[in-house]
Structures are given as structure tokens and as C-alpha cells.
Amino acid sequence: MIDIDKKAALVVIDVQTGFDDPKWFGVGARNNPSCEGNVIALMDAWEATGRPIVVVRHDSTKPDSPLSPNNPGNRLKPGIEGRKAALLISKSVHSAFHGKPDLDAWLKAQGIGQLVISGIMTNRCCETTTRVGADLGYDVLFAVDATHTFDTKGPDGKVVTAADLTRATLASLHEEFARIVRTAEIVASATKGANTSSVGG
């Protein structure tokens, strides 16, 4: 069983309705339809145990992007929107550490040294936030089944599947930047001794 610190922060990245329009973010289907449900399960466990949740929202600077603050796709998805968060980060780049307010400063002020990363997209904002967090000295857990991505066309014109992109992300992050974990084991560790319902992952 993995150890979840009592002050570990759950970072929920860009779980926004705009990602329901895949033509903006890839060339085909997404993977992991369980992503949103697993993010919600993690949030439930964090709320039940009094740990801090950081919600990150991508506020695109491109007016035609579904993630622009002027478009309805900027809204957080059902089950995420309206949940109480210790901190809400607005960003317009990939890393949550380069948004506002300053995530690193907030974490240090709270004495938080461990992060659990979840959200959208696996190989972009989730991976980038993980890399930056690890380089800043945080103990990062990457909740792979609480993320998803899309099939994407590479520079050679060939499509790389969401599954292959995820495998590449995990290979890059494993042991170098993060521990790769799954929702069920995180919830089991976080709620050990607490009276909460279990979750599949």
C-alpha cells in the first residue's frame, strides 16, 4: 500500500466541458472513459479525510478555444464544478505551477510536500505539471486512471493513439518524476481507517 501524507494535495487539472469536443485536442477518440468518475472518487476521499484539493482551470487566451473564459466549455464538468477547493488556479499554459495564484508558494506556505495529479490531458497538462512539481522537489503521485487524452497526429502525419501516448507518458515519468498509481490504491491508502465507500479503478 502506498503512503498518502495527511496533508497531501490532490491536484485536479482542467476537468472542463470543453474537452467533450475532441476536434480541438486531437484527431480521434479519447481513452479512459472512467477518468471523470475516478477524479470524483479521489475528490470524495480527499473531502472525507480533510485533505486539501487544488482545482486547476485552463483559461485559454485563444478566443475561439472551447476553454476560453468567454465560452461555455470553460466550465468545470459536473461533479467537479461547485466542489469546495482549498485553492483554484487559473492558467493559460500547460503547467499548473505557471498559473495564478502561485501554486508552489501556496503549497510551501501550507507545508505540503506530496501531490496527487489527476485530470486532462494525460500527456500535456498533467504530465507537464508532474515534471515541474518533481523538479521543485515534491513527491508526486500520478493517478493514471484519473487522467485521459486523445488520439493525436504526429509530425510524420501518422496518428498516435491515446493509449500509446499514455504509455509514453508513464514510461517517461516512472521513477524519474513520479510514482505511477491508480485510483483504487490511492483511495484505499488515503481512507485507511476512515468510514468511506470503496472505489474501483
Describe this structure in words.
By secondary structure, the chain is α/β, with parallel strands linked by helices. It has one domain: 3-Layer(aba) Sandwich (Rossmann fold), CATH 3.40.50.850. It is built from five helices and eight strands; from the N terminus they run E-H-E-E-H-E-H-E-E-E-H-E-H. The strands form two sheets. Strands 3-2-1-4-5-8 form a six-stranded parallel sheet, with helices on both faces. It has a two-stranded antiparallel sheet with strand order 6-7. Residues 196-201 have low confidence and may be disordered.
H/E element sequence? EHEEHEHEEEHEH
State the CATH topology.
Rossmann fold
In DSSP terms, counting alpha (H) and pi (I) runs of 4 or more, how many helices?
A: 5
Q: Looking at this structure, what is the CATH superfamily?
A: Isochorismatase-like
Briefly note the structural class of the backbone. Answer: alpha/beta
Helix content: 25-40%
- What is the name of the CATH class? Alpha Beta
CATH architecture: 3-Layer(aba) Sandwich
Count the domains. 1
Q: Quick one: overall form? A: globular
Averaged pLDDT, please?
Answer: 94
Strand content: 15-25%
Largest sheet report? 6 strands, parallel
* N/C terminus separation: 15 Å
What is the quaternary state of this protein? Answer: single chain
Number of strands: 8
Q: What ranges have pLDDT less than 50 throughout 5 or more consecutive residues?
A: 196-201
Cα Rg: 16 Å
- Major sheet strand order: 3-2-1-4-5-8
